[in-house]
Structures are given as C-alpha cells and as structure tokens.
C-alpha cells in the first residue's frame, strides 16, 4: 500500500474547511518519502490502536519524526482508535499523559462506530485555524525585522497527482539598505 491522498471537508464554526490528508499508513517501506508528506503541513493526526501496545509505541517514533519536519507549534492530535473494544491494552491515562507531556491533543475514536471521528477532524481544523490566526497577527511584527524569500527545494512528481513542490522559506540575509546614487 502506498500513501493515499484524501480530502476531508468539515464545517468549522460556520466556515467550510477542506483538510488535505496524506495517509502514509505508518509503513516502514515508505519511511524515506515521509518528509515529503510532512513538510509544511498545517497539522498532523497520528492514529494508534488502543488494543495494541506496539501501535502506541510507534506513536512516539512518529511524533519525533514529525517534530523534525514541522514547526514546533504545529497542531498534532493523537487518536486512539477502537475505543469501542473492551480489550484495551493502552490505558487512556497513559495516552493522555503522553499527549499532554508533548503538547499534543488526545482523542478517543472508533472507526467502526464513527465515535468522535468527525469531532477529531473538527478539533484539528480549529487548532490549525487558531494557529494561522495567531501567526497572521504576528506577521506585521516579523515584517518589520526583515522579509523572507522563498526558495524551491525541487519538485517531486508523485504518480497519479499533479506536482508537489516542497518549497521552504529561508531567511534573507539582513543588510543595510544601499544609498541611492
């Protein structure tokens, strides 16, 4: 299975929002491409199986991986799936404590019953919006310090999709303006 691209539409407080989702399915054989999917993401959702301790252990690996590529304040939600199953091996307290210690949000979901799935996506959309609003308020202060230039890191062509441009912003060297002659 390869990474899958999905679009999830949610109504976020009266505004229709489309969440573009790259589902990498946590498969190790695609690990080298994960940075392409993570770079400049507005938020992340890490899903684990509450009946599988190994699945939760991988949350730690994926969260560290995400932190390498995402800005520190990027919203991340950890979703414990199969919360409808009574044979839970990952305690809710353990999962919530891990999320809180790392600045993430935790959500309990069930893909089978649909419990809390929509709310989890809505919560992620709200966190992304709040972060964007905060950054927009901070932009005038940063603009006074110096502009950033955008430089392309290359273009990756992914089969079945248009092109994906993983460009990043680099700070422009600060210098004194030259006098006009």
Could you explain how this protein is built, in words?
The chain is α/β, with parallel strands linked by helices and 181 residues long. It has one domain: 3-Layer(aba) Sandwich (Rossmann fold), CATH 3.40.50.300. 34% of the residues lie in helices and 25% in strands. The chain has 4 helices and 9 strands, in the order ββαβαβαβαββββ. It has helices spanning 34-38, 53-69, 92-101, 117-145, and strands at 4-12, 15-23, 44-49, 76-81, 105-108, 148-151, 156-157, 163-164, 168-171. The protein has a 3-stranded parallel β-sheet, sandwiched between helices. A two-stranded antiparallel sheet has the order 1-2. A hairpin with a 2-residue loop joins strand 1 and strand 2. The protein is globular, with a radius of gyration of 19 Å. The termini are far apart. The model is unreliable at 149-181 (pLDDT under 50).
N-to-C series of helices and strands: EEHEHEHEHEEEE
Estimated helix fraction = 25-40%
Cα gyration radius (Å): 19 Å
Count of DSSP E strands? 9
Mean residue pLDDT: 78
C-alpha termini separation: 62 Å
Secondary structure class reads alpha/beta
CATH top level assignment: Alpha Beta
Counted by DSSP, the helix tally is 4
**C-alpha geometry:** globular
CATH homologous superfamily - what is it? P-loop containing nucleotide triphosphate hydrolases
- Multimerization status: single chain
The tally of structural domains comes to: 1
CATH architecture: 3-Layer(aba) Sandwich
């Amino acid at each position: 299975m390869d990474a899958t691209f999905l679009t999830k539409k949610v109504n976020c407080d009266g505004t229709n929002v489309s969440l573009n989702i790259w589902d990498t399915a946590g498969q190790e054989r695609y690990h080298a491409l994960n940075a392409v999917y993570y770079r400049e993401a507005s938020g992340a959702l890490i899903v684990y199986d509450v009946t599988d301790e190994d699945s939760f252990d991988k949350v730690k690996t994926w969260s560290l991986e995400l932190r390498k590529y995402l800005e520190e304040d990027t919203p991340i939600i950890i979703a414990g799936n199969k919360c409808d199953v009574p044979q839970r091996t990952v305690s809710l307290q353990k999962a919530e404590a891990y999320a809180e210690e790392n600045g993430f949000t935790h959500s309990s979901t069930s893909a089978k019953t649909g419990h809390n799935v929509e709310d989890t996506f809505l919560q992620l959309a709200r966190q992304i919006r709040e972060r964007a609003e905060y950054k927009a308020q901070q932009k005038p202060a940063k603009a006074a310090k110096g502009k950033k230039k955008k430089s392309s890191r290359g273009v990756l062509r992914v089969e079945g999709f248009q092109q994906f441009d993983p460009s990043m912003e680099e700070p422009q060297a600060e210098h004194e303006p030259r006098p006009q002659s």
